[in-house]
Amino acid sequence: MAAIGELAALGTAGCWVVSSLAFTASARRIGSMTLNLVRLVLALGFLTLFCWLYRGLPLPLDASPSTWGWLSVSGVVGFVLGDLCLFRAFLLVGPRISMLIMSLAPPVAAGLGWIWLGERLSLADLAGMAVTLGGVTWVVAEQQPAPGAAGKAGEAGEAGTATAGAAGASVSGMAGVPSSAPPASLAGLALAALGALGQAVGMVLSKRGMGTYDAFAATQIRVLAAIAVYAALFVAIRWWGQVAQGVRDRAGMGFAALGALAGPFVGVSLSLVSIQHTSVGVATTLMSTTPVLIIPAVMVLHRERVSLRAALGAALAVGGVALLWVR
Question: The pTM is what?
Answer without folding.
Answer: 0.85
